[in-house]
Amino acid sequence: MPQSLTERPDAGQSPAEEARAPRLSRGGGQKQIALKLAGLESIVGLHLGIGHSLLVNKLEPQLKPLGLTAKQVTILWLAEANPDLTQIELSRFLEIERATIHQFTRSLVKNGMIEIVPHPTDRRATTLRPTALGKTKLAEARTIIARHETETVAVLSPIERRLLLELLMKLHGAARPD
């Protein structure tokens, strides 16, 4: 049974038990810090959040020379792969507020990487289309992301990487209310 975050499973432990308690060490070029997890080792959301932060924080500086963020690359990538993609569909798929998607899209339009065009069958809707510049920047971003992915998952075997992706996609699908 998972313990709540307010419980202290290590309270009253012997020194030997405390020494065996799960710890997470982090530092990455800075002073290493090891913290007792006290039950947090079983909280999937915490580890997904930390993993996401680590990956994005290492990727963003590499994308910056292209004038793109990771979210903007995602939008370009999906718009290229899905002709007639609307901002509403994008918002639903990425689980991001429509206003936030609009901000990302507006920035991409302003920088000449995406254009908003009328939807071919719905007069009320518009679609997102990468421009030639957007496609060029996306190709460069894909190269950066491929290198970044190779470096960040180097600790995983090919089977572990595939399993991780399958599990994340399973969670992603299970979390959808549809």
Protein topology:
Layout: H1 15-20, E1 23-26, E2 33-36, H2 44-63, H3 70-81, H4 87-94, H5 98-110, E3 114-118, E4 126-130, H6 132-152, H7 158-174
Antiparallel strand pairs: 1-2, 3-4
Helix pairs in contact: 2-6, 3-6, 4-5
Q: Summarize this, please?
A:
By secondary structure, the chain is mainly alpha-helical.
Describe this entry's structure for a reader.
- This protein has 178 residues and is mainly alpha-helical.
- The chain has 2 domains: 1-42, no CATH class; 44-174, Orthogonal Bundle (Arc Repressor Mutant, subunit A), CATH 1.10.10.10.
- Helices cover 54% and strands 10% of the residues.
- It contains 7 helices and 4 strands; from the N terminus they run αββααααββαα.
- It has a two-stranded antiparallel ribbon. Strands 3-4 form a two-stranded antiparallel ribbon.
- Strand 1 (23-26) and strand 2 (33-36) form a beta hairpin.
- Helix 2 packs across helix 6, helix 3 packs across helix 6 and helix 4 (87-94) crosses helix 5 (98-110).
- It is globular, with a radius of gyration of 21 Å.
- The two termini are 29 Å apart.
- The model is unreliable at 1-10 (pLDDT under 50).
Radius of gyration, CA atoms, in whole angstroms: 21 Å
Report the average pLDDT across residues.
Answer: 84
Number of strands: 4
CATH class membership of the largest domain: Mainly Alpha
Distance between the termini: 29 Å
Domain count: the total is 2
Alpha-beta content class: mainly alpha
- One letter per element, helices H and strands E, the order comes to HEEHHHHEEHH
Largest sheet: 2 strands, antiparallel
How much beta, percentage-wise?
5-15%
**Would you identify the CATH H-level superfamily of the largest domain?**
Winged helix-like DNA-binding domain superfamily/Winged helix DNA-binding domain
* Tally of helical runs: 7
Sequence of strands across the biggest β-sheet? 1-2
Indicate the low-confidence ranges by residue numbers: 1-10
Which architecture of the largest domain does the CATH hierarchy give at level 2?
Orthogonal Bundle
CATH names the topology of the largest domain as Arc Repressor Mutant, subunit A
